Amino acid sequence: MSLDNQLVVVKTSKSKYLAVIDVEKEFITNEGKFSFSVIKNIPSKIHSSTGVEFKIYHPTYKEFVLLMKRGPQIIYPKDIGQIILEADIHKESNVLEIGTGSGALTLYLLNILGTAGSLISLDVSRKNQRRAKKTIDRYMSTNNFKNNYNLDFITTSLVDFNYKEYTEIVDTVVTDVPEPWEFFENNIVTKDLKWVSYLPSISQITKFNDVLINNKFENIEVKEVILRDWVVDKKIVRPSNKLVSHTGFIISGRYIKY
Amino acid sequence: MSLDNQLVVVKTSKSKYLAVIDVEKEFITNEGKFSFSVIKNIPSKIHSSTGVEFKIYHPTYKEFVLLMKRGPQIIYPKDIGQIILEADIHKESNVLEIGTGSGALTLYLLNILGTAGSLISLDVSRKNQRRAKKTIDRYMSTNNFKNNYNLDFITTSLVDFNYKEYTEIVDTVVTDVPEPWEFFENNIVTKDLKWVSYLPSISQITKFNDVLINNKFENIEVKEVILRDWVVDKKIVRPSNKLVSHTGFIISGRYIKY
Amino acid sequence: MSLDNQLVVVKTSKSKYLAVIDVEKEFITNEGKFSFSVIKNIPSKIHSSTGVEFKIYHPTYKEFVLLMKRGPQIIYPKDIGQIILEADIHKESNVLEIGTGSGALTLYLLNILGTAGSLISLDVSRKNQRRAKKTIDRYMSTNNFKNNYNLDFITTSLVDFNYKEYTEIVDTVVTDVPEPWEFFENNIVTKDLKWVSYLPSISQITKFNDVLINNKFENIEVKEVILRDWVVDKKIVRPSNKLVSHTGFIISGRYIKY
Amino acid sequence: MSLDNQLVVVKTSKSKYLAVIDVEKEFITNEGKFSFSVIKNIPSKIHSSTGVEFKIYHPTYKEFVLLMKRGPQIIYPKDIGQIILEADIHKESNVLEIGTGSGALTLYLLNILGTAGSLISLDVSRKNQRRAKKTIDRYMSTNNFKNNYNLDFITTSLVDFNYKEYTEIVDTVVTDVPEPWEFFENNIVTKDLKWVSYLPSISQITKFNDVLINNKFENIEVKEVILRDWVVDKKIVRPSNKLVSHTGFIISGRYIKY
Fold this sequence. Notes:
By secondary structure, the first copy, chain A, is of the alpha/beta class. Chain A is built from 6 helices and 14 strands. In chain A, the strands form 3 sheets. An 8-stranded mixed sheet of chain A has the order 9-8-7-10-11-14-12-13, sandwiched between helices. In chain A, strands 2-1-6-5 form a 4-stranded antiparallel sheet. Chains in contact: A-B, A-C, A-D, B-C, B-D, C-D.
C-alpha cells in the first residue's frame, strides 16, 4: 500500500508535527530534515542525516485536531466529548450539524455515525465544506475505515434554511455558529428532536435559552467543561500551569412531541 | 408494538423517575399514581386520578445512567465523553473494557461501536455481567437500534487474565477498576494499543503512570474534567450551587510498535 | 479570668460544634454531654461520664463563620480573602460596608482594620446590626484583642443613604447586598474610591458593571473563586467529593479623581 | 511633599506600567515618553509631546505585585487572600514567615499586622531581605501609612533555625519555601501554633501532611484556589480565555496544647 497522502505525526524528543506524506518531498524542521520516501512503514522510526530520531505514526483524532492548521472558530476536543453526550448521539443517530466550519466536529461525528446513521452538515461557505471534505477523506483513508460514511452538505445561510424537508430524517441538531436562533426565524420544530448548541458567551446562552423555551423545548441544561491537565513526574505531581481556561458553553434541550 | 418492558422517564413538574413499563402494574409516586396500561404511545402525557400530569418519554443515555439504581462505582457521564475522546474510540474500534461494573460504560461503548467494531468486557463478577447485559438489552430495544452489537464477556480477575490471545483483535483498552496495573503483572503489550484508565485518586494515577512508562507507553496524559452546571432563568444567570466536585482522573497513553 | 461567655469549638473524633460557655449549663450532643463548669482552661480536653473525649479550643475565624447559625445570605470564607485583596484593604483603610447582614464580613474587616483604620457598616435592619455587634464583641473578647475597634453603624435603606457626608472619610466600599446600584441613584462619587461588590448572579454583575462604567470607575474586574478541598490520606490523595460549587462573583473597580 | 521615589502606575489606553518617580529622568514607552518632573500631583493625567494621555496613580497592592519585576517564586495574589484566611491572621497576630523571597507576601502581611502585631521573616539570603525591605519601605511611604511596622529579619537556612527562642512570641507560621519540613528536623512545637504552607506540587503536600501529623498538628486541610477572570462587555459576557491554571496548594494545620 502506498503511504502517499497519509496523515502522520512526526515526533521528536521536543516536538510534535502533523504532516501529509508526499514521497517526492522532504520534511524540514528546526531539528533536522528527512525525505518522506524513507518512510517504509507506519509506525516507524527514522533518522535525519544529523542523527535526530523521528517517530512516525498515525494521529489520534485529538492529535489531528490540535495539530491541524486552523481558523479561530475550531471546537476544542475537551468540549466535543461532552457535546456528543449531551446530544445523546450514537452510531444510529441522524444528525444535522449547523456550521461545518473547519470540519473538526463533522469528522468526529463521522467517527461515530455508522452505516445506520447519517449526517447532514450545513454551512454558508462552500469553501469550508470542500476543505472539510478533504480533511475527512484524508483522515478516513489514513485510518483505514472499512465502511463508508453517510454525509450530505447543505450550502446556505441559516436564516434561509428550510428545515421542513429534513424533519422526518433528522433526530438531533448540533450547532457551532454564533447565532443558532436564526434557525427558528423561519422554521418550527414539530417532531422529536434533540438539540445542542456550543456558544462562547453566557449572553448568547441566555438569549438562546429563551428561544428554546419559546419553541417548547424542555430538559434544557447549560454546561461548561473545565479540563485540567496534570503533570505527573517522578518527583512532581501537580496541575499544569497551562490551561485553555474557557472555550464555550454547551446548551442542550429536547423537543418532545407528546 | 407492545410497550411492555420499555424504559421510560416519568416526569412531573417536580421530579423525574426512571421506570420499566409493566402493563400489569401501577406506577406510584408521592405526587400521584397511574396504571402503566394507560400508556398508549411513547412519548405521551397521561394524568393521574388526582389530576397530576405525567410526561412519558424514552430516556437519553445520560438520563438513564443518572436515574438508574446504582452501586458506588458508577462512572459519571461527564467523564465518559472525555474517556471516549482520550481513547480515540470510533465506530470501528475494537475495545477491551476492564471492569464491566454496572454496565454504564459498556452501554455507552455499544452506542458507538458499530457493525465493524467490537467490545470485550472483562469483570471478575458474572453477576455484574448478567446485570449489565440485561441493562444493555433493555436500553437497546427501547431505543429500537437497527443493528445488533458485538459484545463478549470475559469473567476473570484481572491478575489472571491472559491478554495474549486478544492481542490481534484489540486496539484499545479502557479500564474502570481500582488496580489496572494488575494487567501488566502477567502480560506484556507487543502491538499498537491505546489505553485509558479512570481512577479516583491522584496517588493511583502516579503509580499507574510509572507502570505505563515501564511498559513503554508514550504520549501519556492525565486529565481531570470539572463540569459546571449553570442556572439560566429570566433574572438569574449563575453557576449551580450543586456540583459533583470530583469523580476521577483520566490517564491515557499509547503503545506504538515501531 | 472567667471563661463564661467565651466562644469555643467542642470537637470529638466525629464532629465539631460551636458553643458559648455558660457555666450554669450543660453541653449536650449525640455523643455524650458535659457540664461547662468542668472546663478550667482553654484549650483543654475533658471527658463525658461515658468516656467520650471532648477537645475544647478557641475557634479560628473560619471555624466560627462556618459553624455559626446563619441565614441564607452569609458570605463564604473562600470569597472573603479575595474580597479583601480586590478591595486593597489594609490596617489603615477606612471602609464603608454596605450590608451588615450576619456580621461575618464585618467581623473579618475588624480583624484587619487597626487603630488607624475605621469601619462604617450600613444595613436597613437594626436587628441585623445588633446581632452583628454581639457576635463581634463575643469573638473579640474570646480572642483577647488588645486594641479596640472603630465601628459605626448606619441604619438606612441604601436608596436613602446620603453618601456626601462620608466622602472625606471613606476610601473603600465593600457591598454584600443584591442591588448595590441603588447607591448611585442618589449619590455621585467625586473622590478616590475603591469599590468591591459581591453578587451571586452574572446578570447582576453585568448590570452593575454598566453602572460602574457610567459612574466613571476604571480598572473594573470580575472574578470568581473556585475553592477545591483535597483529601490527603496515607493511600488516597484526591479532590474532595463535596464542594461549594458557586457562591458569588466579585466585581471590583476604582474611581480615581485625576 | 516631594513625589520623588514614589511608586506609581502609568496607564495608557493600551498598557499599564509600574514606575518609581525620579524627577531627573524620563519615562519611556513604545507609546511615547514624558519627563517625571511634569507630574505635579498623584493621581493626575499628563500628555506626551505626541499627545498620548498617561494616567498616573498609586498602585493597589495587587497591581504592585503583578507589575513588579520578579523571580520565579512569587506568590500569586489569588492565593494570598486564602493564605491569610487559612492562617487566621489578623492585625494582632505575631507571625513567623519562612521564606522572605521577593517580599510580596511579607508586604501583604505588614499591610495587615498592626501596632499590636509583629512579623519575623526568615530567609537564607540576606540579599532577598534587603531587596524586600526596600520594596516594603517604598510601598509604605508611597501609601502614606501613619503607623510604623514591626518587622525583624532572620537570615539562616531553615534547617539551622532554632525556633525555641521564638516560641513565646510567635502564634502563626506561614511558609513559602519548597521544603517546609526542614523546620521540624531540629525543632518541636510545644505551644499553640497555626501553620500554613504554600507548595506547588501535590507530592510535596502529601509529604508535609505526614510531617504535620507526626508533629501532632490537627485540623489539617488542603486547599487549591482556582480563580476565574470574567470578561464583561456590552455584548459579550464570558470567562477570560487566559487563566493562571495552577500556582500552588495551601496546607493548613493547628497545633493545640491541651
